[in-house]
Design a protein that fits this description.
CATH superfamily of one domain: TusA-like domain
Helix content: 10-25%
Radius of gyration: 18 Å
CATH topology of one domain: Translation Initiation Factor IF3
Strand content: 35-45%
Number of strands: 7
Strand order of the largest sheet: 1-4-5-7-6
Order of helices and strands: EEEEHEHEE
Length: 117
């Protein structure tokens, strides 16, 4: 079963929008909409959810977040994400499914090429 990435819109945390009345254009105060690719792998048999997530990761740019919807918590995925340099946030949903937000971790360290004393 092919799984496609569906772009969704997200708002940066702590920001709000201001709406106008009828016939007015909505304007935003410190508000940016960004496309957030969404991957829905709920109901797929193992190992398809894992494989689809792994295939989607290289499509992320440095500032994108992949939103994954899955029907069980994918513990094996977390170790792979950590080892590959991704950060994630998992939220248990009311219906028993999980939402995982995956981003590329910023490089916190740089190579020090200065000569040793």
């Amino acid at each position: 079963m092919p799984v496609s990435l569906t772009p969704t819109l997200s708002r940066k945390r702590g920001e709000r929008s201001e709406g106008g009345g009828a016939g007015q254009t909505n304007r935003c105060a410190s508000f940016t909409l960004t496309a957030m690719p969404e991957l829905d792998v709920r109901g797929l048999p193992p190992p398809e959810p894992f494989e689809n997530i792994i295939r989607a990761l290289p499509t992320l740019s440095g500032n994108e977040t992949l939103q994954v919807l899955i029907h069980r918590e994918p513990y094996p995925l977390y170790e792979m994400l950590r080892d590959a340099g991704y950060a994630w946030q998992t939220t248990a949903l009311a219906d028993g499914d999980f939402k995982i937000l995956i981003t590329i971790m910023a490089q916190a360290t740089q190579n020090d090429e200065s000569p040793a004393p």
